Amino acid sequence: MARLLYTLAILALLPWALLHLVWRARRQPEYLRHWSERFGFFAPAPGEPLIWIHAVSVGETRAAQPLVAALKERYPGHRILMTHMTPTGRLTSEAVFGNQVERCYLPYDTPWAVTRFLAHFRPVVGIIMETEIWPNLVAGCHGHAIPLLLINARLSAKSARRYGRFPRITAETLAKLAAITAIGEDDARRLRELGAPEVAVCGHIKFDIDPPVEQIAMGDEFRRLCGDRPLLLCASTREGEERLILDAWAPLRGRGMLLGLVPRHPQRFDEVARLAAGGGFQVARRSTNAPVPPDADIWIGDSMGEMFGYYAAADAAFIGGSLLEYGSQNLIEACAVGTPVLIGPSIFNFPDTARAAVACGAALQIADAEELAAQAAELLGNKARLAAMGTAGKGFAASHRGATARNLTLIEPFIPAGR
Q: What is the DSSP letter of 53?
């Protein structure tokens, strides 16, 4: 009965979902592309056995890199399908994996679309990255004897409260998953409290991402384009944060530092460039691939799939999403290349990781944009401290590796031998 009521609610929301696609397409036309996939209609698929990984958007897609590499090495005869919910997730998949994987949108969670999806692709196993709990999808996999695993799960207290409003369907859905692994003990505890029968703590797969050699070289090229000025990179910034950062940075103009802004969502690249120019800053953009003029104050990182390159070029990096109540993006990539990190007060997406990085000296936590500007200015003028934080960051990232292997051990029993 609980799932029936849920399904009726999903059906009632479908007209809104279509309007949402049209509305979002005003700024990002990709929302109207491949729209039939959202209802379970797909192009013909080859017949080889298939491993399916669901990564809802950008962060989950990037986090899947080590797992995709391990699965391709272990099961070379299998195709890998990645499903997404957002165009930015799909674009990130194209940038990160190219033709190594197939990709499509995961259909809306109606029984009919789920059935068409599973019948079309016939995956031998399904893997959901981080936390996406779709009752009809989970029930459909269970009914078709397709093992579906939730791995690398993270569940904030806020998200747990939201799922907890629907205790029966949440518990029933979690119980039908073949296996669940969590990033940390707090995530595992919240999942168990919601009804998950068993949760293994395996750490964060993103620690296993090796910075690509070509992106480290790209960082060297970015550094050449930016010149000798110290560079503070504000990475994966969210709406509202850039204005706060620019206002706080304005008094530092003329002090020989360069501010880089890399908005999290590509549809905001032009908006952020206009915002900076409207504030009286001289703006340069990565997409021109030209040297940053000496009088430029702001460098806009308007490209996809190059985050390691941006971090490698920076002297220090602020992690976006943490100034306002978005919850910070992950700081692991910055630490992995030895870039000192500054992070704001909103860290509920990755609290354990953020606190551990601060505790070991790889990161500094700041309270607001004004403190960000002040701490960044002091840090960029202290090469010894930059070096010490960078070394601590590399050590922090290296000490947490191994989650991919632990997750793979749990995934392997669900992939039939010889397939």
A: E
DSSP secondary structure letters along 190-238: HHHHTT-S--EE---GGGGPPPPHHHHHHHHHHHHHHTTS-EEEEEEE-
Alpha-carbon gap, residue 42 to 29, rounded angstroms: 20
Amino acid at 280: G
CA distances (Å), 322 to each of 19, 364, 367, in order? 30, 12, 9
**Is 107 within 8 Å of 130 (Cβ atoms)?**
no
CA 190, CA 199: separation in Å to the nearest integer? 10
Global pTM value: 0.87
- Total residue length of the chain: 419
The model's pLDDT over 67-111, given as tens digits with 9 standing for 90+, comes to 999 999 999 999 999 999 999 899 999 988 999 999 999 999 999
Distance from C-alpha of 26 to C-alpha of 343, rounded to nearest angstrom: 32
Q: Are 249 and 332 in contact (CB under 8 A)?
A: no
Residues with a known catalytic role: 60
CA distance 340 to 190: 31
Q: Could you tell me the domains of the chain?
A: 35-203+402-414 (3.40.50.11720), 213-399 (3.40.50.2000)
How many angstroms separate the Cα of 378 from the Cα of each of 235, 241, 314, 385? 19, 21, 15, 10
Q: Which candidate, 193, 47, 54, 162, places its Cα nearest to that of 114?
A: 54
The number of CA neighbours under 13 Å toward the Cβ of 148 is 26
Per-residue model confidence as pLDDT tens digits over 392-407? 999 999 999 999 999 9
